[in-house]
Design brief:
Blueprint (H helix, E strand, L loop, with lengths): L1 E2 L5 E2 L26 H12 L2 H4 L1 H7 L4 H29 L3 H4 L1 H4 L5 H33 L8 H20 L1 H30 L4 H4 L7 H18 L1 H6 L1 H4 L5 H34 L6 H6 L4 H23 L1 H10 L6 H14 L2 H4 L3 H30 L6 H4 L14 H19 L4 H5 L1 H17 L21
Antiparallel strand pairs: 1-2
Helix pairs in contact: 1-9, 1-14, 1-16, 3-4, 4-11, 4-14, 4-20, 7-8, 7-16, 7-17, 7-18, 7-20, 8-16, 8-18, 9-14, 9-16, 11-20, 17-18, 20-22, 20-24, 22-24
């Protein structure tokens, strides 16, 4: 390996013939790491601006929080999840490696498929959900444009598969197309959201009754019992990306770009759009006489077809930008990790898109609110231990040093026992199992309420106890070559 002035390592050894390597999950060259602070921030804006974010505070308000308490909970959850997000992004930027390769360090060259496929499964579920939502927006847009468009049945299915095909097209085009798309979409999404807020406040003569409604909790104890599982849900919303953020950070030009980009893009956008969702819904009580939490339903109320078309186009772009970045890149890489010699990024992305149809998202969304918020807590408990293990492995066990060559070959440092690190798998199973007990045993329901936090802590501590004394990677002899070309 060689090292640049910016502290980025580049693998010079040839591992292209290894069964654990292919072009798409191989380490990026320094010259490929061109994503700036703006590109990273734009990525997060594109992922955060979506209908689930708009509706995120709705479940908290429905549960008894005031609108301001709900928005604060969303903000706090995203500030908390930003910490593991940045920490797991560091090795991606430093070594140019994606998530399924990074997790080989802790789970083993073959054991890495356990967390990778778990993460991929969650992404496939979200892909189907977002595609159905985007198809609904496209269907509403066509209804406004053309009176002959079928309002029920076939029209909705055509819109769904057209939107699905657009997703597949961008997948085939690759990561550079995604980078350009996110950079173009980000400012449009912010401007339209603010415009929607200004319209709602103007029509309602202010923020509306929901924003002034006090909390329904009688005391702090009642509030706390609801606040903790709500906060866990907010953290779990991006618990997926806190694992696979190296899939993106490996393209960052330096650590400052990924840290500042994420700090500027994630908590700010999530908080802004949660506020817009609550505020616009509050205004619809005054404007339309009912609380409309779904932005598709709000835009459908307009009589001007141009407003409807423009608004639905915005929702479609917002959903598309979230879907590709958050729900395709990771599982595409994760499926490649199963069989790198046969599965590349495009094939992995198409597998994701097919599974997204097979899960029948239209059925999952029949109880949208309950599905989203119950699911968040459940998979938060599953992914929390993985985050804890990854961070413990890189920062405490490895002291920030990885042998990238051995991450791509069998029989190297990360081979463990036949490719599996059973200590990591054991720490994960125990951490996830303990949190899930609270789902079925009422007396320890608090375990499920704190699922991500408890899972993270158990995974982190148990892995550290089991792995103490593991030999660190000695990179003292790695040649440093300041002449390696920096990203422009």
């Amino acid at each position: 390996m060689v090292k640049t002035k910016a502290g980025l390592y580049e693998l010079t050894a040839d591992v292209s013939q290894s069964p654990l390597h292919n072009h798409d999950i191989g380490p990026t060259k320094v010259a490929q790491r061109t994503w700036t602070t703006y590109n990273i921030a734009a990525l997060w804006i594109g992922m955060s601006v979506c209908i689930p974010t708009y509706m995120l505070a709705a479940g908290l308000v429905a549960g008894g929080m005031s609108a301001w308490q709900a928005v604060f909970t969303v903000m706090l959850g995203n500030v908390i999840v930003l910490i593991p997000m940045v920490l797991n992004a560091v090795p991606g930027t430093k070594y140019g490696i994606p998530f399924p390769v990074l997790v080989r360090s802790s789970f083993g060259t073959l054991g890495s498929n356990v967390p990778a496929l778990l993460r991929a499964g969650v992404a496939c579920g979200w892909f189907g959900i977002q595609t159905w939502i985007g198809g609904s927006a496209l269907n509403a847009m066509m209804l406004a444009l053309w009176s002959g468009w079928p309002s029920e049945g076939i029209g909705k299915w055509i819109a769904f598969f057209v939107f699905w095909a657009i997703n597949v097209y961008i997948i085939v085009r690759g990561m550079e197309t995604l980078k350009r798309f996110e950079s173009w979409a980000a400012p449009i999404l912010i401007v339209f959201g603010i415009a929607m807020l200004i319209w709602a406040m103007g029509k309602a003569g202010g923020l509306g009754p929901i924003m002034s409604e006090p909390s329904k909790f009688k005391n702090f104890g009642e509030f706390w019992k609801f606040f903790i599982p709500g906060l866990t849900g907010m953290v779990a919303f991006w618990a997926t990306l806190s694992l696979n953020i190296p899939d993106f950070s490996r393209y960052a030009r330096d650590q400052k770009a990924q840290i500042y980009g994420q700090a500027l893009g994630l908590p700010t956008t999530m908080t802004l759009y949660a506020f817009i969702g609550v505020a616009v819904t509050s205004a619809t009580v005054v404007i339309f006489g009912e609380a409309l939490w779904d932005p598709v339903a709000v835009l459908s109320k307009f009589e001007n077809p141009l407003v409807i078309v423009f608004g639905m186009f915005w929702l479609a772009v917002a959903t598309l930008s979230t879907n590709i970045a958050a729900n395709v890149v990771s599982p595409a890489n994760d499926f490649q990790n199963l069989w790198p010699r046969k599965i590349n990024f495009v094939i992995g992305g198409i597998i994701t898109s097919i599974i997204g149809i097979v899960i029948m998202p239209w059925k999952l969304l029949s109880d949208y609110g309950a599905y989203i918020f119950n699911w968040l807590g459940t998979y938060g408990g599953l992914l929390g231990p993985i985050a804890g293990i990854m961070i413990c492995d890189y920062y405490l066990i490895r002291k920030g040093k990885l042998d990238v060559h051995d991450l791509y070959v069998r029989g190297g440092e990360y081979e463990y026992s036949g490719g599996f690190n059973w200590k990591a798998i054991g720490a994960f199973v125990i951490g996830a199992g303990i949190t899930l007990i609270g789902k079925w045993v009422d007396s320890v329901k608090w375990l499920a309420d704190y699922s991500w936090f408890i899972g993270f802590a158990i995974g982190f501590v148990l892995y550290w106890v089991l792995m103490r004394g593991t030999e660190e990677v000695d990179l003292s002899l790695v040649p440093e070559l300041d002449a390696v070309p920096e990203a422009e």
